[in-house]
Amino acid sequence: MQQFEATEHQHVRYNPLKDEWILVSPHRCKRPWSGQTEQAPEEQPPDPNNPLRAGAVRANGQKNPNYTSTYVFPNDFPALLERVPEPPPPDHPLFQASQAKGTCRVMCFHPDSSMTIPLMTIEEILAVIEEWINQLQELGRRYTWVQIFENKGAVMGCSNPHPHCQIWASSFLPNEPRVKERCQREYYTKYGKSMLVEYLEQELKQKERIVIQNSEWVALVPYWAAWPYETMVLPINNRPQRMTDLNESQKKGLAEIMKMLCTKYDNLFNCSFPYSMGWHGAPTGPSKKPGDSPHWLFHGIYLPPLLRSATVKKFMVGYEMLAQPQRDLTPEQAAQKLRECDVVHYKNK
């Protein structure tokens, strides 16, 4: 009987963090590509009229200050508002609605519209992390969930190339963190250990999916990764449950690992690598206190769409939408390709 080879034979992998399975089909990497291609990200001079730049006037008439580091302001077109009426009680259990309150903010990383995380200095990235923590501390006192996320690149639906992220705070626990909350709590109840703490211990032993590591953080391609070059950023020490738990050494180490990881991403296909990324930690709110969620481990997720080159991306359609996630390249192969990328940005060579 033929022996199983993970790099040759299809198989399914379990994601315990989301209680779902992923189909891995490595033999599909050999198929020729004749489908859609995207335009390679073009290097364009910064738009002097970019509404996010320092001193610019935005669509609502508000003028940005001449900021020199990070800058946070309320989203001019928010998906969540702080004051809204409550929906009426449902007439039938199949038609339920619940109140959703919140606020949305935009956070600029840098005054230079041509800048990105891999091109910023460690000190500049550290300023971004410090402001993320400030925002989480403030909004987390009032809201159940504070989602910090960055969409980078037009292919990810980013409408403005200026380096920025969004911060959405909500009175409810959204779907993704709600599933992670349940799965991690169930694992902790059953085994008496944090799922991601134990997972990281195993990854540090096996090493095959680790991309980069420093004294405080590890960036790896998860065993259950769905996107081709998906990575997870995990803390090695002190088991922080939220970003607000990070100490000074962890903050600096995170700035370093972010710069290195995003540099490797850019160097993979010699382009400004698109992605959606964000941070997940224990839920927040007025009743939450440091150390109250031992089942959680704070972590970051990078979800890039590119598959074969700067112009060929992975589509989550058809089977992925109707059945379950599927990937071609194995997580181990993806990690190796990223490991082999230089930590010196191609623009600086």
UniProtKB/TrEMBL annotation:
It holds the Pfam family GalP_UDP_tr_C. Keywords: Carbohydrate metabolism, Galactose metabolism, Metal-binding, Nucleotidyltransferase, Transferase, Zinc. Belongs to the galactose-1-phosphate uridylyltransferase type 1 family. PANTHER family: GALACTOSE-1-PHOSPHATE URIDYLYLTRANSFERASE. The active site is at H164. Transmembrane segments: none annotated. UDP-alpha-D-glucose binds at residues 28-31, 59, 75-76, 151, 157-159, 166, 314-315, 319-320, 326. CDD domains: GalT. Signal peptide: none annotated. Its EC number is 2.7.7.12. GO terms for molecular function: UDP-glucose:hexose-1-phosphate uridylyltransferase activity; zinc ion binding. Residues 182-348 form the Galactose-1-phosphate uridyl transferase C-terminal domain. Its cofactor is Zn(2+). This is Galactose-1-phosphate uridylyltransferase. NCBIfam families: galT_1 (TIGR00209), PRK11720.1 (NF008724). Residues 31-65 are annotated as: Disordered. SUPFAM superfamilies: HIT-like (SSF54197). It catalyses: alpha-D-galactose 1-phosphate + UDP-alpha-D-glucose = alpha-D-glucose 1-phosphate + UDP-alpha-D-galactose. Pathway: Carbohydrate metabolism; galactose metabolism. Residues 3-174 form the Galactose-1-phosphate uridyl transferase N-terminal domain. GO terms for biological process: galactose catabolic process via UDP-galactose, Leloir pathway. One of its GO terms (cellular component) is cytoplasm.
